[in-house]
Amino acid sequence: MTTLGCALFATRWLQAPLYFGLVAAQGVYVYKFFNELWHLIHHVISGHADETHVMLAVLKLVDVVMIANLLIMVIVGGYETFVSRIGLQGHRDQPEWLSHVNSNVLKVKLATAIVGISSVHLLQMFVDVHHTPRHDLLWGTVIHMAFIASAAILAYMSGPMAAHEAKTRAVKDTGRTAVIPAQRDGGGGGGGAPAELSTGAEERIEAAGFPARKVLEMFDEAHLRAPEPQVITRLGKVDFVTRKANVVLLGGPGTGKTHLAVALGVRACQAGHRVLFATAAEWGARLAEAKAAGRLRKELARLDAYPVLVVDEVGYVPFEADVAHLLFQLVSHRYERGSLIVTGSRPLGRWDEVFGDSATASATVDRLAHHAEVVTLDADSYRTRRLEPDSTQVMGASDAGPATPF
Known about the structure:
Layout: H1 3-10, H2 16-46, H3 51-82, H4 103-127, H5 134-176, H6 199-208, H7 229-235, H8 239-242, E1 246-251, H9 257-270, E2 275-279, H10 280-292, H11 296-302, E3 308-314, H12 321-334, E4 339-344, H13 352-355, H14 358-370, E5 372-377, H15 382-385, H16 389-399
Parallel strand pairs: 1-4, 1-5, 2-3, 3-4
């Protein structure tokens, strides 16, 4: 980027004081709300308020709240879109719409909010119809219908615009990443990036450290004997992240555990959550390094910034005692703080064979499985299924050796 371009881009910070001014306006509306509420309570207690007066006063309070909500939407969404990102990833109160907010979405939401406010104003006029001139009623209705029409037009226009942006991103992704068939358990390559991913989601996916791009749409459920397809569909909603629950995927080699773990991690990134992926051995090495440097607690606390951690390949190689204890500390620290997606080749009842100590294994499984969806994948190995049956028969015949002469 040129110096002139950098300077022009930096001028976006001139809008920051405007949003802080809207924060002050929010304070004014808070004052107005409690002022109106006090007058309503005073009139009710003194007996000077009839039903119509109470209804009008309540509608005024609703009107103030809706305008305050509109201000919040403009402050948060506008600042995020036009000035600078707000680092809310992983915050339990992060708005759902903030993960995919853009100027197009913001305009539609503002238009619908204005329609809501206009509806309340029009309702106030009809409630107090005996004291409202017909001229005001007529124009109030016309203006309200104009707001509805403009919101409908904006919503209609947002569809083609979003489709055009998605198509542009898809073209860029196709030129950057080769699309190959999905493989299981961390096989090389990845599926094509979904066209609807936002730039923020792409950055989260890149930062997650996935071994390859995997998506649920490319997961082959046809050869699964268990679980039922709806179980995977339910996991794909990634509701477990907001509940700070875990997902444990168990099964033999080649059954798709890593594919599912990565695909769920990608879905979590698309939903606005930060994700970090590593194998169990890599997590052990990372925590061991932090412990040796005397910063294990800080490292565990730093990982709290990631709502989802993926721990892959538990059970293939037994852990050393120190690594087993460190992984227990990771699971214990994450308990009811964040989500873990764990893949393992052995049933939970046999994890003492992996941890080398039944007490550590039992404590780890207890915390991991308490708030968890434990899914056992029952299927033939994906890699074995790819072998041609004819080639297997030929190999069997050739391995039999020459016939023994009589």
